[in-house]
TrEMBL record:
PANTHER family: ABC TRANSPORTER SUBSTRATE-BINDING PROTEIN (PTHR30024:SF45), ALIPHATIC SULFONATES-BINDING PROTEIN-RELATED (PTHR30024). This is ABC transporter substrate-binding protein. Keywords: Signal. Pfam families: NMT1 (PF09084). The keyword Heme does not apply. InterPro entries: SsuA/THI5. Residues 1-23 form the signal peptide.
Length: 446
């Protein structure tokens, strides 16, 4: 994001009057934003944006912004259709359901996708985790067992598509429709054999030592993203309010890129998630790439998801995708750099060097992180040191993961990390002579 996009309320024209969710008791116009605090792929339109106060600063004193926090996108959609939420953020599958149901309702209920928060072109924001003591090595090992997922969510979609990829239908596992926090508890109690969820649940449970990653969504190689959806009537009646929101989102994205550690600490404080997990996704070379522009690849993946959601019975009505996507408001808020940045897919907070190898260390007591060239350099640098977190890219899929929770192979003179045993097994089968080692052994032998 260009620094020239940073704006102050003083530079903006007076905002036009608009019809929004309702009026505040003190006479101000109320704008209601639905967000998911723990879905940290949406922080630039939710948790971080709220804490920074950019939206309120741009709007000024005539408006009251009401932030409503939810665990998933479904209740945000219900409230938007009822006219009780003006702007919402959610993942790609919930966005599809949002657009479909709103279009079916018609009239003032219609919604449009107006910007992206964060994305991963390979799908690594979603994953399936199992208990540490589980004997499962692949998804196939969960056949006939119970798996917790929020039906219709991006995490659920990854599970079903991954099962299909290995020749199994959705009925191969018993899907328990649960909110993420309920599913996490079910996994701990042994009520389910696996948990299929979206950012940040897989990373949080693994980093806390409560689970291990069984399936890396990056292996699916299907783009996944989260975005901002708005009631169409709200956008038409108050275009300047939406313009203010999008400009504030752009500011928050710039802040996240320029202050990744501070942003992670802030989001962690607001959500109760660990800073180390937030940074895994939102930091430099994070699993999530934050970019508000609506990429062609995202639109294409979105269209391909329509038949899938219909097949599992959560999309009853067809969706006119072209009319649902609307980047006109974003183009206006973004300025002349939009088309240039639209073509870029690199992380705005990239580490130096080759992204397929670049690794990172968060030393204990340090106020910032330290970049290293590759996983072997990381192993050498941490020996005898106290660390908060260590991050490496999976040698097969490129998915960034915790080095101390990765599966390691010694391959000749190199040490290669993998987010899952399945990825490590796939690499080993193609590279005879590799030797499995623990993280501690890799540190000692590097």
């Amino acid at each position: 994001m260009k620094k020239t996009l940073l704006l102050t309320a003083a530079l903006l024209p007076a905002l036009a009057a608009c019809t929004v969710a309702g009026g505040a008791e003190d006479g101000r116009t109320k704008v209601v934003v639905g967000y998911q605090s723990k879905t940290i792929n949406t922080v630039t339109a939710g948790t971080l944006l709220r804490s920074l106060g950019y939206f309120e600063k741009i709007l000024g004193t005539k408006y009251q912004v009401v932030w409503q926090d939810y665990e998933s996108g479904a209740p945000i959609t219900a409230e938007m259709i009822a006219g009780k939420i003006d702007i919402g953020s959610m993942g790609d599958y919930p966005l599809l359901i949002n657009g479909s149901r709103a279009q079916a309702q018609g009239g003032d209920a219609a919604t449009q996708l107006v910007s992206i928060t964060g994305y991963n072109l390979k799908g690594a924001l979603n994953g399936v985790v199992v208990a540490n003591g589980s004997k499962a090595r692949t998804l196939r090992d969960l056949k006939g067992r119970a798996v917790s997922a929020s039906v219709g969510s991006a995490g659920h979609g990854t599970l079903v598509q991954a099962l299909k990829r290995i020749g199994l239908d959705a009925g191969a596992v018993r899907t328990e429709n649960q909110q993420p926090s309920v599913g996490a508890s079910s996994l701990q109690s042994g009520g389910v054999a696996g948990l299929a969820q979206f950012v940040a649940w897989p990373g949080q449970l693994v980093q806390a030592g409560q689970a291990r990653l069984l399936y890396d969504g990056g292996a699916l190689d299907v783009p996944t993203f989260h975005g901002v959806v708005v009631r169409k009537k709200f956008a038409e009646d108050g275009p300047d309010v939406l313009d203010a929101f999008l400009k504030a989102q752009i500011q928050a994205t710039t802040y996240l890129h320029e202050h990744p550690v501070e942003a992670a600490e802030s989001v962690a404080k607001e959500t109760g998630l660990s800073p180390e997990t937030v940074y895994l996704y939102n930091g430099r070379n994070g699993i999530s790439t934050f970019d508000v522009t609506i990429k062609p690849a995202q639109r294409a993946a979105f269209e391909q998801d329509v038949p899938f959601l219909k097949s599992i019975g959560v999309l009853d009505e067809p969706l006119d995708v072209p009319s649902f996507f609307n980047d006109a408001h974003l183009r206006k808020a973004y300025g002349t750099a939009y088309d240039t940045d639209l073509a870029r897919t690199s992380n705005g907070a990239a580490l130096p060097g080759d992204p397929a190898l670049a690794s990172e260390i968060w030393f204990e007591g340090a106020e910032t992180t330290e970049a290293v060239a590759d996983p072997v350099a990381l192993l050498k640098a941490v020996r005898g040191k106290r660390v908060r977190a260590v991050y490496v890219p999976d040698a097969l899929t490129g998915t960034r993961w915790f080095a101390d929770h990765s599966v390691w192979l010694k391959d000749g003179g190199a040490f290669r990390p993998f987010a899952t045993r399945e990825n490590a097994d796939a690499y080993a089968s193609a590279h005879p002579g590799t030797e499995p080692v623990t993280y501690a052994e890799a540190v000692e032998r590097a």
